[in-house]
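Support case: user asked for a sample of complex input and structure output to validate their parser. Sending the pair below.
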Amino acid sequence: MANIVSDVICTFCGTLCDDLEIELSDDGKKIKEVYHACAIGAEKFLHSQAEDRITRPRMMQEDGTTKEVSYEEAAKYTAKILCDAKKPLMYGWSSTSCEAQSVGHEIAEAVGGMVDNTATVCHGSSLIAVQDVGIPSCTLGEAMNRADRVVFWGCNPAHAHPRHMSRYSVYPRGFFTGKGAKSRKVIVIDPRKTDTASLADAHLQLDQGRDYELLSALRVAFRGEKLPDFVAGIPKDQIYEAADLLKSGRFVIIYFGMGVTQSLGKNHNIDIAIAVTRDLNDYTKAAIMPMRGHYNVTGSGEVLGWQFGFPYCVDLSRGIARYNPGETSSNDLLVRDEVDAAFILGSDPGAHFPISSVKKIAQLPSVAIDPHLTPTTAVCKLHVPVAFVGVEVGGCCYRMDNVPIESRKVVDPPEGMLTDQEFLTMVLAEVRKCKGV
Amino acid sequence: MTKISLNLLTGRTIQQGSTMEGGKEKKAYTKAVAIIEMTPEDMKRLKVWKNTNVRVSNEFGSVVVKAVLAEQGLHSGDAYMPMGPWANMVVDPNTYSTGMPTFKGTPIEVEVAINEPIYDSQELVRRACGLKV
């Protein structure tokens, strides 16, 4: 009989699917097959079994080659660069558990670090907007059971959150949405005719970067006021139709993504998207939700929030927690040469930061803690491979709607490999020795 | 040599996501991500066949990638690169005091670079950082 582990949590994106089934070898040591996951989630589980996986820390040599070191030596080096630095950048945190994040924050407090997570290049703009104007939101369960008008604004779940539409937003039959997709009208607002747009009832293919104008126009249309013939490249009739469609719903949910947070306007685009949601609540019920990327970027914001009061860009270098995106954010700190060491965990700025920031990381004493080989591990002085959270070790993760979900261990990590929480605990002990605390 | 100006968008594709999880040092990742998607009209303007190497450059940097036809329709004048180290060679790093670089809406110039190599992710970043490869 097949050795199947059921109800496994997928630790790839913020959807945190919780219905995976994993087929193991008879001895329970190897993953043979992954069921119910999307292409990306399945690849994550299967890649953890790769034969060529790095299983021990490696230190970069002068000539560009690497030398294997022990976890103890790696912990000492990491503690040393953090203790020697006046203002170390401690970035990432989104691909690990809340428990590991919490240990990392203890280290950051001891060394006066700048703690930032991947929201800084993802939904940081949304967090600023939420602090400015609040957010009327809900859980994915509520959206699944109630929402009959679904808006995807600047996001493409068909590619980025592949099971979002089938589990929560479009296809499932809910308590008040018994006919599944037939009970819902889907509007996509995106400058590209994405695969998500091809499934929608209406697609407003606006000019790139004109989201603020179109959101303003929707507010005008809700009130029945006059619009110019075109706004953001969209004919006014389409805007009035979309406004009427939204107002006629019983429950509207707006999901938004990088199309709005990363285009010019940034947090102000989200301000007005939230204002649109507030306006809709004059006519029906409406909620708005960011489509969070990493599986636990939401958790990082939560843990930073309850420990220091701010969800990202936390400056602990002065002995108190400060927060000022634009000043205490990773890319600004790197480009302005304001940090003197880089500690990166559970993220890949080497691939996902502008190259001007990556060049700065390459010049600093640096450590990358990541199960994979990445462009970040290619430029950091030390690479510490760790077990995969959600595959080889469990831990708490937060779904995109702020619901905590406990991820599960499926197989053991390769022999002798540490989890990131274990490695961070070793680093913390070394830091305490060094700081005498 | 023909050079055209376009507006660059970046973001996730499912091929980028799955090859990323399969290993960023692997060829599949380079194949899925070191591309620029363009409309048929813009490819005509640039006078290239699909799957030709092109150089994408602007004031922030320069990178060689493969020009492909956009699978998910674009406005003419827009181009799309999957998020990753190749796109990040040319995205606008300005955060305008928000902490967020401007990953979408960067003006770029594209020209044919048929004989220039496309580096894998690790080599690309190490070269750009002046490290030995």
